[in-house]
Design goal:
The structure holds 2 protein chains of 2 kinds.
Chain A lengths: L2 H17 L5 H56 L3 H59 L2 H49 L13 H23 L5 H8 L1 H7 L1 H8 L8
Chain B lengths: L1 E4 L3 E4 L2 H5 L2 H13 L2 H18 L1 E2 L10 E3 L6 H8 L8
Parallel strand pairs in B: 1-4
Antiparallel strand pairs in B: 1-2, 2-3
The chains are: A mainly alpha, B alpha+beta.
Chain lengths: 267, 92
């Protein structure tokens, strides 16, 4: 017998076995209908779960893309400051991110595909469940228990096959989502650990930023010094200095950051 | 006759249209036996494409059983083996 025929037979016998529960054939109808409604809500949950995972991956892609843009800007600044070593480091990190982003976008497409499949599965099952409900009421109203047997058998095997199909679709979607959630959690951890430098964090600063900040604050200091020497110091540069205690108290992090900075000694 | 592609739904096919697909069915079986994933993929895609192009969608409101049930388009050999095994399919 051909492989496909074997698959068909096995699939069908499993699907039918799963529904063959009640003694009174009419009870079987109601029991099956309950199972169908449960499966329908399970598909709806499945659609929502996959959508949540997809959105999470989208968020991660956005975060990593922001970070890649930031590294690009840093590389340009570093080149402008004559620091090829820093620029090289920034670009190296960016290329690492680029492969992560490509990977995540593939996941995103897969999840999108699973979501669409489940939505269609939900629509198909919905149509069959509705047809089954109508058939069930007709059978109950029209036939005696003995007569109903054959009609019920027909309706049951048709819906059983659909339920088996949808059940399999949910299972496959869950498996794929679970795999991606594991990988997604790893990316979240990376972002949380600062290894990818979450740009939304206060005092966001990887070592490249710190060096670039040091370079630019160094040149700011030089420029201000030059202005002071020329006797054209801007008034706002003096006012904060009179009130310096409060500002320092309000910005302990800033003070610490400057403390780490070699250039601050000159300021 | 009615053919179901798992994950896609049911199609109506002329009986003779299905005869033409037997060659692909044999290829799939050989690929599964040999564990040849590439050959399996090609043969399965060919079979499913032929069903889609020579069939029409079966009435979604019907409760008819399919005569033939085919694996989903992205199935792997392992999944087909699972379909043939004792577990792997959870109806409902």
């Amino acid at each position: 017998m051909s492989l496909m025929k074997r698959i068909s037979l096995i699939f069908r016998s499993k699907a039918n076995k799963a529904l063959d529960k009640a003694e009174d054939p009419r009870e079987t109808l109601d029991y099956s209908y309950q199972r169908q409604l449960e499966l329908l809500s399970k598909v709806r949950r499945g659609v929502a779960d996959v959508a949540t995972s997809r959105k999470r991956v989208e968020l991660q892609v956005n975060q990593l893309e922001q970070q890649a843009t930031k590294l690009q800007t840093q590389a340009e600044k570093a080149i402008g400051a004559g620091r090829e070593d820093l620029a090289r480091e920034a670009l190296t990190r960016k290329s690492g991110l680029t492969s992560q982003i490509t990977n995540l976008k593939e996941q995103q497409a897969t999840l999108q595909g699973e979501e669409e499949k489940l939505v269609l599965a939900q629509q198909r099952l919905q149509a069959k469940v509705e047809a089954f409900r109508t058939r069930k009421e007709t059978i109950k109203a029209t036939y005696t228990a003995a007569e109903a047997q054959t009609r019920i058998g027909e309706a049951m095997s048709g819906i059983g096959e659909e339920m088996g199909d949808v059940g399999l679709a949910i299972q496959r979607a869950e498996d794929k989502t679970a795999q991606m959630q594991a990988r997604g959690a790893a990316i979240d951890e990376l972002i949380a650990s600062g290894a990818l430098d979450d740009a939304s964090q206060l005092n966001a600063g990887d070592d490249i930023s710190r060096e670039l900040d040091a370079l630019s604050s160094g040149s700011d200091v030089e420029a201000e010094l030059a202005r002071l020497k020329a006797g054209s110091a801007a008034p706002q540069a003096i006012e904060p200095a009179e009130d310096g205690g409060d500002i320092l108290a309000g910005q302990p992090d800033a003070v610490r950051a400057e403390g780490d900075n070699d250039e601050s000694g000159r300021a | 006759m009615i053919v179901r592609i798992l994950g896609e739904g049911q199609y109506d096919l002329e009986d003779h249209a299905l005869d033409a697909l037997n060659g692909l069915d044999n290829q799939i079986e050989q690929a599964v036996d040999a564990g040849d994933e590439a050959m399996f993929r090609t043969a399965l895609q060919g079979l499913l494409a032929a069903v889609r192009s020579s069939g029409t969608h079966h009435d979604p409101d019907s409760l008819d059983e399919s005569d033939l049930i085919l694996p989903p388009p992205d199935a792997t050999i392992d999944e087909v083996r699972e379909l043939l095994g004792d577990d792997g399919l959870v109806p409902g």
